[in-house]
Amino acid sequence: MRFPFRRTAASLFAAGALAGAMGPAALAAPAGPRQAPRQAECRTRVHGSHATADCFNGHSDPDRVQLHIECDRWWDPDMDTAPATVGPARYVSLTQRCWLGIHHAWVTHTPG
C-alpha cells in the first residue's frame, strides 16, 4: 500500500518543478499589441488598360509608394512606376497602363 503514496508524492514533486520552471515566464509582462507600420493610405482603381493609385500620408513619417501592374496578355510586359515619396499630410497619384488589359494592380510601401 505504500506505492500509491509514492506515486502521489512523485507526481506532486513533478508538478511543483514544472510550475517553478514556468513561473518566471508566466510573470513576465505580456507582449502588447503589435502596431501596424505607419504607411500612406492608397486606393487603386483599374479602368480598362489604365490603373491609378491615389495615396495620402496622414502620418508624420514619409512613405515611398510604388504602383505595380500585372498585364493580362503574356506578351504585354508587366509595369512598375518609379517610387514616389509621400511626405506628411501629402497626396500622390500614380498611373500606369498595359496595352490591352490589366490582370492585377497593387501598391508597395517602403519607409522613407
What do these coordinates show?
The protein is an alpha+beta fold. The protein has one helix spanning 2-27, and strands at residues 41-47, 50-57, 63-71, 79-80, 84-86, 90-97, 102-111. The longest helix has 26 residues, at 2-27. The protein is 23% helix and 42% strand. The chain has a domain at 41-111: Immunoglobulin-like, CATH 2.60.40.10. The protein starts with a helix and ends with a strand. The radius of gyration is 28 Å and the shape is elongated. The protein is built from 1 helix and 7 strands; from the N terminus they run αβββββββ. Strands 3, 4, 5 and 7 form a 4-stranded antiparallel sheet that branches.
